[in-house]
Write a structure and sequence with these properties.
The structure is a homodimer. By secondary structure, chain A is an alpha/beta fold. The first copy, chain A, has three domains: about 45 residues, 434 Repressor (Amino-terminal Domain); about 130 residues, Rossmann fold; about 130 residues, Response regulator (Rossmann fold), CATH 3.40.50. The first copy, chain A, is built from twelve helices and twelve strands. Chain A is elongated, with a radius of gyration of 26 Å. The termini of chain A are far apart. Chain A binds a DNA duplex (30 and 30 nucleotides) through helix 2 and helix 4.
DNA sequence: TTCCATTATGTTATCGATAACATGTTATCG
DNA sequence: CGATAACATGTTATCGATAACATAATGGAA
């Protein structure tokens, strides 16, 4: 049983009193300000140590109008990609001396978005990382609202827009790599299983596939593509559909590894040999993909790095604003790379 | 290019001035205090709306000594389990009106732990959720330090200790279920691939396996177990080792699904039929496990729910302390359940 | 009619720190 | 040796809100 005993917080006044100096002097010692005599400094430091004094970041944030806190708005944390990005975000934030105030979006409607933004601003965050995938028109609010947010906002995984800072994996170029690779392996009838088509990332991956085929003089018509929703279950459905609409299929570029997993399984069941009769390439490069049977060729993206770079980027923005410098708004891209494994090449 | 234009924050003073009342009255309106005349209330509300005033949670936290913020300390976010737990944490926190201040532990040494705790306390969190798996002696600090932390601390995934609130999945009983199931299917030579043995969860799962076998009068000696580190790669290694030390193996309980994945693959390669010649059961119940080939029997734990309940628990603790009630410290457990699929039963 | 509870609002203190300014003491230099 | 810069420290104002207390008007109950 825990007794509800309460110790009062040790404040700067307690220290000042115990050391026989003013609070300002204690503050100077804590912030390593130069003009403090060695003698005083030591005396104060001893008291700080004895009392176990730790300054209240909260109070400091209030007076300095700066919290060294970044608001992170996430969506779909239950998926592994976003959560690994968050990992990168957390690590880099730590390294640069920032804390993270987290909000997971439950709905994507404008009201909840407004509420989330307000609650972050009310807590004086120095910047906001919008780590929510772009789906449908869920970026419309941005046009009206962005200018009136008094701190920098950085968008992850968004279609580049003028005057809006963003950072994303280059999904298009990843898809091109994968499709190109299938072509180089000699496959000609290359289908695609896409993600949900209202997701920007899904569109980009599909565009990479179709552009590459068209450029090679091949067909990329709609019957050669089926839509999933990222889940393995939907991947299975989409694959079955594709086998119907595109029977001569000899290779398939699947928009994520989870869906590719069920393509591999269904191929097994139907005794379709991978890669001899059907090559399969995925996207994401989840660690398990190396242990699929057969191991999966996939476009490896580095969500961890995406997270790290996004913190670096927003901290640059915060510092620029702090120092009243102007700042060039960019859309940054991170290049993925292709990992070739058994599912597309005969070892 | 973004112009470094800065709008001044609208404060309670601005509202008070514009509405011709005192700040106290504005505060009363914002907090729905009763003794305000309808006329005044409306006047203030109009001004609030016009100016777009939002109270500073920061300032409020300072005076009220209460931030409605919970510190969450995580470790291993890059793994899917912890990140889904975080998802549950985030959702429930939102529902109960709390924000999350996040810190990912990089090292597990005492210094970094101390630093993390201090930085959370300096930001006036109302409670701390220690979502770090128990590994080796990384809970030793707790004995000395816990009592001196002025806010409630709840530990996730920890061996129950007297007077320390904790919440965890019941790994032991999950392991018992899986092993029991294998026994019921008629397998007699049941091996185990464990997680890293300094993890509490790994120990519990192994204990569930060995206890069940011993109770059934079967052998659970060391040569029937191999140790992995949760990764698919290590699972493969462990499986190869097990095939050597325990050649008569006809079933294996694997401590997580990722490792089970590579067991399935290696079995394919060696033309060992699953489940006819070798039954495989996993642990975790990741969504993909339903799409392994064959689909994997696994112990389903609900990390999302773990997260939700942990927030509920700590909020109870916070409220108890707030109201100066005493509170019964418990170790809570969440029961997992077995999902039977193809890898252990002939459909 | 007087008194006190209820309602309505304002004033001052406070949370824990730093900013801005003020003042006194030492060095330093021409 | 006096002016001036550098050092050392203290005092007061401030960040944006609420707590605690004070004051005044209203409206029944005694």
């Amino acid at each position: 049983m825990t007794q509800p005993e309460r110790k009062k917080r040790i404040t700067i006044k307690d220290v000042a009193h115990a050391a026989g100096v003013s609070t300002q002097t204690v503050s100077r010692v804590m912030n390593k300000f130069a003009y403090v005599s060695d003698e005083t400094r030591q005396r104060v430091e001893v008291v700080v140590e004895q009392l176990g004094y730790r300054p209240s970041t909260l109070a400091r944030s209030l007076i300095q109008q700066r919290s060294f806190t970044i608001g992170v708005v996430t969506f779909g944390l239950k998926y592994i990609g976003p959560s690994r990005t968050l990992n990168g975000i957390a690590d880099m934030a730590d390294e640069l001396g920032y804390m993270l105030l987290m909000k997971e979006l439950v709905d994507l409607d404008t009201e909840s978005i407004e509420e989330v933004i307000e609650s972050l601003l009310a807590r004086q965050v120095d910047g906001i990382l919008w780590a929510v995938p772009e789906i449908g028109d869920n970026r419309n609010w941005l046009t009206d609202r962005l200018a009136s947010i008094p701190v920098p906002v950085l968008f992850l995984t968004m279609e580049p827009r003028a005057n809006v800072p963003s950072i994303a994996t280059d999904n298009y170029s990843g898809a091109v790599m994968a499709t190109q690779h299938l072509l180089e392996c000699g496959y000609k009838n290359i289908g695609h299983i896409s993600g949900p088509m209202d997701w920007w990332e899904a569109k980009e991956r599909k565009r990479g596939w179709s552009d590459t085929l068209i450029k090679a003089g091949l067909d990329a018509s709609e019957n050669r593509c089926a839509e999933g929703n990222w889940s393995s279950a939907s991947g299975e459905q989409a694959f079955l559909q594709l086998l119907q609409t595109f029977p001569t299929l000899d290779a398939v570029f699947v928009a994520n590894d989870q869906m590719a997993l069920s393509v591999l399984r269904e191929a097994h069941r139907r005794k379709i040999k991978v890669p001899e009769q059907l090559a399969v390439a995925g996207f994401d490069g989840i660690p398990e993909s190396a242990y699929f049977y057969p191991s999966l060729t996939t476009v490896f993206q580095n969500p961890q790095m995406l997270g790290e770079q996004s913190i670096q980027y927003i901290v640059e923005m915060i510092q620029a604003r702090q120092e009243n410098r102007s700042f060039i708004t960019q859309s940054r891209f991170i290049q993925p790379n292709l990992t070739v494994r058994e599912s597309t090449s005969l070892v």
